Amino acid sequence: MCTNILIHTSLEGAGFGRKGWFPVTRANVTYDHPFHVDLEHAVTVDFVDEAGGLDARVGVELTVASARALAEALLAACAEAEAYESGRTSGG
Amino acid sequence: MADTGSYEGMLAEVTKVPGHGGHWISVYFARPLGPGPFPGVVWLHHMPGWDEWTKEACRKLAYHGFMVAAPDLYCRAGRGAPEDVAAKVRAEGGVPDAQVVGDAAACRDFLRALPQSNGKVGVTGTCSGGRHAYLAACLEPFDACVDLWGGGVVMRPEDLTEKRPVAPIDYTERLSCPLLGLFGEEDRAPSPEQVRLHEEALQRHGKPYEFHMYAGAGHGFFYHDRPAAYRAEQAVDGWKKVIGFFRRHLD
Hints:
B: alpha/beta; 8-stranded mixed β-sheet
């Protein structure tokens, strides 16, 4: 809102928040003023269920460096997961 | 000036006001007790929402003799923890400017109609609320406006959206009242260059204004609950300027 940096992505999965487990249908990613972490701006990621109400949300607020580290960790995990799955398929 | 021998009281509560489009909006309403007459101030909250700091700021002005109405600009998104409500609004790209201006005007009318009102109402806010306050003061009649580091008064054409179709600086000719602006030299939204452009527009249109650029301060230097942003010396001076300005123009 203050930076106009806002990116959405659809997701399939589940998250655990104040209301227990809920379906995660979307991630809202911004670089904007955080609510809690003591930074002027942070990379914020809200994992939400669009149909689940306001409290169907798990939010994180990250420094840019740690957000990048997280993104790299996710990509590395996905690469290994895909290799694992393709190996399992070819090996029976 | 406070007098230790005098009666003093304050009431702060949530009430409902018919806002933009006739929608009933929640309003945090803090005011001194007594018959008045008291001036009014509409406080427009910042991007993190209708939160504890905003309500504290309202009570501070009420302590100094102002009736303050702070609308929950995000109440149409639902009710819940301020962070959850603000997260939803953030994911939707904010609230429409026209709606905020309508809500601000509704709070002004609410304050003016009170029997203890002196008939004058100012408008203020921090961060996005500073921008909204300026916008409201350009599009609606107010008696004084305080813009506290409002980012996005100056906007690039590519930043205009359906919700924010016009850069507030382009409404400067219509500014209805004297303006006070407080900014931090290390801020990027607004940057010192954007503040300079805003100042040029005010001068070009002959508008009464007073801007202060604080050295050693960035964005949000009043926020004592944000240790990285808070600047005690600048905040103490800034609050004096805000209260003094409203006294001069609203009393």
